[in-house]
């Protein structure tokens, strides 16, 4: 009996669930991470080879961009600009996303709110960010207020549209069934409408965060004493292409990190979803 128990415990300790180990014997998470990184690695390799060949001498290699970044890190200049830009994005996105959520939820839940809000939102949505720059400079000056205001406006529209679409896509039969069980308006929204609309809301959140970084680029390309945009403009004046590419890489990495953050939130709050995830 003891020998049989020992053998059973040994088998249990060695055997892994089939969904955690791939056919090659490696953990599926490790395989997935390698696949997700392969595209970026291929781009870096092509960039490095192209900088030494068909891209010409005006395009710095990734190694040169890293060297320029290390020089700015040692002087502390990079952190100063990065913190200033991050502060603007965080403030702008927080306010803009909150406004978009409120407007989208009000329009989705109340027809009166939709009738009042929808037309102005659609009109403003068609205005490009570049067209708002001179107006915002006149209104707010060239300080941080102008840049934050431009970032605030950018994420409102994708959040509004996706929240509205998410709420309106909830199956009416679920709502009627909940009402027949005696759920009040608050409980109906919390237990039925919000969970059903969350996937669409997260799509809007991913779009809003990306657009927020794009708005930062537009805002900081104007007159600014500190920020990633200032660093790029300064590098342009002195023909420092390595620093220009460094700022572009920082923008790209920042956007990627915010997207990963939303994906983590999706995994946390949408763990109940059993939809098709590819093969």
UniProtKB/TrEMBL annotation:
List UniProt keywords, sorted A-Z. Answer: Cell membrane, Membrane, Transmembrane, Transmembrane helix, Transport
User: Any idea where the ABC transmembrane type-1 domain is?
Assistant: 78-262
Question: Which compartments is it annotated to reside in?
Answer: Cell membrane
Here the segments flagged for biased composition (Basic and acidic residues) are 1-19
Q: Name one GO biological process term.
A: alkanesulfonate transmembrane transport
Q: Which stretches of sequence are listed as region Disordered? A: 1-23
Q: Per the UniProt record, which residue ranges are transmembrane?
A: 89-110, 122-142, 148-167, 211-232, 244-265
Q: How does it sit in the membrane?
A: Multi-pass membrane protein
InterPro entries in UniProt: MetI-like, MetI-like_sf
| Principal cellular location given in the protein's record | membrane
Q: Name one Pfam family in it.
A: BPD_transp_1
Name the PROSITE patterns on file: ABC_TM1
Record's Gene Ontology CC terms?
A: plasma membrane
Family listed: Belongs to the binding-protein-dependent transport system permease family.
User: Per its record, how is this protein called by name?
Assistant: Sulfonate transport system permease protein
């Amino acid at each position: 009996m003891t020998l049989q128990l020992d053998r059973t415990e040994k088998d249990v300790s060695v055997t892994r669930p089939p969904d955690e180990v791939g056919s090659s014997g490696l953990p599926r998470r490790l395989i997935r991470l390698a696949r997700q990184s392969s595209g970026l690695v291929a781009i870096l390799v092509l960039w490095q080879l192209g900088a030494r060949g068909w891209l010409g001498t005006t395009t710095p290699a990734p190694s040169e961009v890293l060297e320029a970044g290390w020089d700015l890190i040692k002087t502390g200049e990079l952190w100063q600009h990065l913190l200033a830009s991050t502060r603007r994005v965080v403030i702008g996105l927080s306010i803009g996303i909150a406004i978009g959520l409120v407007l989208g939820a009000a329009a989705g839940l109340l027809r009166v709110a939709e009738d009042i809000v929808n037309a102005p939102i659609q009109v403003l949505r068609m205005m490009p960010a570049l067209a708002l720059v001179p107006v915002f400079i006149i209104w707010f000056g060239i300080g941080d207020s102008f840049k934050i205001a431009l970032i605030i406006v950018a994420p409102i529209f994708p959040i509004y549209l996706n929240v509205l679409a998410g709420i309106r896509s909830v199956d009416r039969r679920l709502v009627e069934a909940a009402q027949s069980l005696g759920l009040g308006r608050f409980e109906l929204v919390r237990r039925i409408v919000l969970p059903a609309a969350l996937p669409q809301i997260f799509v809007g959140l991913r779009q809003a965060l990306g657009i927020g970084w794009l708005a930062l680029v537009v805002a900081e390309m104007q007159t600014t004493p500190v920020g990633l945009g200032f660093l790029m403009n300064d590098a342009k004046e002195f023909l420092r292409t390595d620093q220009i590419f460094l700022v572009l890489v920082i923008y790209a990495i920042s956007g990627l990190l915010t997207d990963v953050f939303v994906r983590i939130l999706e995994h946390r709050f949408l763990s109940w979803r059993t939809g098709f995830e590819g093969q």
